[in-house]
Each structure stands twice: as structure tokens, then as C-alpha cells.
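C-alpha cells please, single chain.
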Amino acid sequence: MSDPLRIQFDAGTLILNGADDAVLQSLPGVQLDLRINAHRTEARHYRAIVEALRQNKQDFTDEARDYQPLACKLTSTRAPFPHQKEALATWWNQGGCGVVVLPTGTGKTHVALLAIAHVGRPTLVVTPTIPLMNQWYGELLRAFTKPAGERSEPAGPAAIGLIGGGSYDFQPLTVTTYDSAYIHLERWGNKFGLIVFDECHHLPSASYQFAAVGSIAPYRLGLTATPERADGRDSLYPELIGPIVYRREIKQLAGDFLAEYRVVRVDVELTPEEKERYDQARTTYRQFLLEHRISIGSPAGWQRFIQETCRQPEGRAAFQAYREQKRLAVAAPAKINLLDELLHRHALDRTIIFTYDNASVYEIARRFLVPAITHQTKTRERQQILERFHAGAYNVVVTSQVLNEGVDVPAASVGVILSGTGSVREHVQRLGRLLRKHGDKQALLYEVVSRNTAEEYTSERRRQHDAYG
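Here you go.
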């Protein structure tokens, strides 16, 4: 008779021993690790293994799980919106695993808070940035209370842990970043029963996915407004979090739960001199691509272009030509002149200006004397700018790509996209900055495009979403 099976957690994996090899190797993902002469699998298989053992009535000792049920009581008494209740119910009915897709401003965070209270297990919330981590920390502090203790301890605010940005404090409810999560998974991978991946489209990247692979959490919730990835790695959601279980789009919720909005494309012309320089640079760049059979739209296209420019004698000229045609299209003087007109037209509105690069941000900030936010802006300064923008002390903010996600700016009603990538996700996220309900505002997004340049193609690519239909 074989010994009882034993499951142990080891630095993001599970070690199983004490049972027949045939039993062990029939379990999900389990393989023999010859280094230790025991069977091992990724920690993410914990739930499937436990369910299989119970179904087969196989005795086992669980030494992997290092948490107990947790009473999480929401302090908020506001009733969830219908789509929030539907999202929670659908997610729970799918086994408490999966991705919820909701537009920015429709309460994804509240869905997660409802899930945390419903599941009643220690929870880790994973976010993409330090500012968003701090924002979640505040939400968790406001949302939950700890129950009264056995020794007449009164109920009070729950202890919320923080890992990242110089903090390292584990608590039953903890918020962290993707960077910190996969680094420290060997310490926390068995301490949480629910893991929430905010902006979960970041998770499938080569390193970040280990935050899911190395956790035993049987319950998993992904939140995003834009689940698709250009590299196709969104196909990994089912094995990392679970499939997309609930989805609502901007047009389905606009009016009732999002601000009404309009999207207006405005074309500008290059001067004859600019157009001549653009065409010359574009021809040099395109000829290089053709000669070396590079498809810049393929997943590895940009990497191949950079490699070939380093190898080939004419590579430097091709790269300079690429930069020149890009600069002429995205930073045309006609765009700045149009921006001047738009800012006068919307002088009483709260406006966010989006650009492709930091150089354009700083040029606009100097010309129009408006605050700028880039990746170089310190956290405290960024927060101060956004607070003053919301309060009305600033009417205009200019940014490159750092306000695309995870920033709450409900007062913003006008957006001006002077330049950007062809990413559908980026475009939808920029629109999402304007759609949060704030009084009876009507949101308006301008997309400024240089006529007869590659920007026209870029515009068509990034508008391939039903929000622009």
C-alpha cells in the first residue's frame, strides 16, 4: 500500500510525493523532477490537482496552502450597477476564474471589490504601475473593515498590505505591481486564495505571466477594457486566469453608465516643402524594407528592421529616413496651428492632449504654457497636476502615453490626439479617459491626421473598434 500523497509549495511550483508514479503522473502538468527524485508541477495547477484527487477519492495531505478563509465585509452600501452584478455572477458561475472586460469608467474596480467580499479568501491585487497600485491601496482601505475580534476588539479598517514602490508589507489583502509580483512569487505564491489582475492585458508578457504561473490561487479575476494583444498572447488567458467570461463594450454602456461622446477626425496638410521631404524619406525607408523583405507589420518586423539597419551599409540612411518621415507626419506645424484653434474653441472645457513622443509634449507645454506629464514626471508631481486639473486650476494637460490607462480623470471632456500608434488598445484607452460620468458632460475626441501620409493608414488601423463605428 502506497503512502498518502503529499503536496508542498516550493518557489512557485508544487512538489508531490508519497504516491504511486502512475497516480502522480495522471495529475495536471505533473512530471518527474530527476534533480530531487520527486514529481513537480507549476503552482497554477493546484486547484485542478486538488479537484482531481477529491473526485478520485484519493487521500492526500495539503501542505501547500498557507491561508485560511477571510471575512471581508464591504463598507460601501451603494447598490452595484446591473452590469457589475452580471459580471460578478457570470464570473462566479464559471468557477470564479476568468476575465471581465468592461470599458474604462464603468466600475471594474467595484466588480473586484464585490468578488473579494464574495470569495472570502486572502487576496492579492496586481497592477501595472506604482500610481495605480497606490490608487488600489486607497480603494481597499475605503472598501473593507475587519470584523470585531474575539477579545472584544472593535471592528475597524482592514490592514492592507503594499508591495512595491519601497514598501514590503504582506497582509491578507495586499496590492502590488506586476514587476514586484513575479519577483516575489516564491514568497507569496501560496498565501492567497484569490488573485486579481488589473489591466490584465499586461499579464501574458514573457516575464509577468509567472505571477499567475507561480500562484496556487484557486480563484482568479482579470480586469481590462482592451483584452486583445497585437502579439496574440491574449490566447494565454485561459491557462493563466481563465477565459473571457463577461464583456460589455463602450456603445452598450454609453449614456446610462458612460458619458455620451463623439469622435471627430480632422485632417491637416503638410506644406509643399514638408511633403517633398516626407516623400523622399518615405521612399528611402520603404525601398530598404522591400530590398530586405521586411514586413514591418509582422510581430517581428520592427526587430528585423533594426537588425538590418545595423548590418547593412545603407542601414543608417534608412533609419534616419524612417525617423524623418515619422517626425514630419506626427509633428507637422499645421497640427500645432490647429491645436491653437481647438484650445481657443474649448477654452472652458477640461482638455487632454495626447501625443506620440515626449519631444512633442514638451514643445506644446512651452508654447501653450500648460502642464506636461510624461514617464519622466515624478509620482507626486503627476498626482498634483491631475488633482489641479480635476479641480479646474488647470484646464489643459498634455501627455505622451502615460495617461492611457489606470488614471481617473472624470472632469476631462475633450481629448485631442495629435499623434499616436496604430494600436486599437491605445486609441480605446485614450477615448476611455473622457468617458467617465461627471455631471452631464458630453465627451468629444479629436483625432488629428496628416493627410497623404502613413498616418492615414495608422488612423484606419487604430479605429478598428466598435466604439468608432
